[in-house]
């Protein structure tokens, strides 16, 4: 089954790949690895902003991380790499949060669970989930990725 067919089966429509907001490119391919720049959470075209532990609930944070994951898939599609995904190697989850918020791993599960949902075993990956005081544009979550692709 193609990834496009799997997305359709899951009822997932990918957003339009976001343009970079600074001096970088969304995807760099080096050999059989695609390195994806951090993606921000857009839900219904609007950036999810704020901090976990303050103005953003755990559930909203998980949805924001899933939105970051959808943007990772959209960037792969825009680069012509979506059907070449062999393995999701690693996700990096960055969660804007208050000093007492400690559920960053639960937030990052929003993106992690999406990868397994879409790619099955090939979506299982290593991961980091880090709390940070602020993210670009006051985003609540940012997720980057390393993806193994077929030759």
TrEMBL record:
InterPro entries (alphabetical): Endoribo_LPSP/chorism_mut-like (IPR013813), RutC-like_sf (IPR035959)
Boundaries of every Endoribonuclease L-PSP/chorismate mutase-like domain copy: 5-141
Pfam families for this protein: YjgF_endoribonc
Superkingdom field: Bacteria
Annotated transmembrane regions: none
Protein name in the entry: RidA family protein
Organism, scientific name: Qipengyuania soli
């Amino acid at each position: 089954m193609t990834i496009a067919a799997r997305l359709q089966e899951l009822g997932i429509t990918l957003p339009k790949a976001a343009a970079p907001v600074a001096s970088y490119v969304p995807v760099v391919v080096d050999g059989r690895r695609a390195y994806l720049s951090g993606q921000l959470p857009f839900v219904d075209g609007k950036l999810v902003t704020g901090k976990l532990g303050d103005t953003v609930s755990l559930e909203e944070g998980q949805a924001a991380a899933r939105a970051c994951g959808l943007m990772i898939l959209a960037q792969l599609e825009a680069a012509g790499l979506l059907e070449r995904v062999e393995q999701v190697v690693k996700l990096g989850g960055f969660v804007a949060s208050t000093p007492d918020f400690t559920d960053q791993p639960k937030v990052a599960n929003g993106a992690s669970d999406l990868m397994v949902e879409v790619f099955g075993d090939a979506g299982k990956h290593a991961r980091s989930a880090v709390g940070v005081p602020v993210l670009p544009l006051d985003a609540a979550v940012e997720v980057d990725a390393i993806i193994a692709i077929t030759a």
